[in-house]
Design goal:
Blueprint lengths: L1 H19 L1 H47 L7 H10 L17 H7 L4 H8 L12 H4 L11 H12 L3
The site of heme C (HEC) has 26 residues, from helix 5, helix 6 and helix 7.
Amino acid sequence: MKIKYLLLSGLLFGLVACEQAPKKEEVPQQEQKQEQKVEQKAEQKVEQKAQEVKQEAKKEETKQVVQTSGGALGNPDKGKNVFQSRGCAACHLPASESVGPSLKRIAQAYAGKEEQLVKFLKGKAPAIVDPERFAIMKPQLNQIKDLSEQELRDLAAYIMSYK
Ligand code: HEC
């Protein structure tokens, strides 16, 4: 309540002051206008910069997409770390069958279809190696749900290195 009264009396005072000194007001008004213009210009500049930065960020993004969807897989050494740290090695040996097919068998099945392997790892393509036992593999894809596009490509590159 007190604040309201303060604001009201402030307004009233302001009105009275305005009426009493109409001539004096003109000069500061002009000044104010100029100030506003300067402020507006500054704001516009800031906005422009922000837009420029956004546009550059977008360019970078599209660049990355082009680079990664160009067919080049990632770094197999990094992929090896992912493969081991996410528990994939428990069921996939390099060259012999265990619970899951060997990495060699998987790599041979995906030869020339690397993009499809990346899709499979994303859960967006069906199993082609041993589809009847996909029920065992399916929940494992949850272990890599949080990986970035690049990390998935590293993982695929590691698997493909056994071709
Ligand atoms: C519990 C055992 C088990 C674990 C752990 C496991 N897999 Fe599998 N995986 C399988 C089985 C069984 C298959 C065969 C079914 C199939 O082809 O989908 C398979 C198949 C695959 C295939 C071939 C898919 C296809 O097209 O048929 C890939 C690629 C694969 N696993 C990658 C991985 C990765 C990466 C991990 C770690 C995140 C992993 N697996 C963890 C059991 C496992």
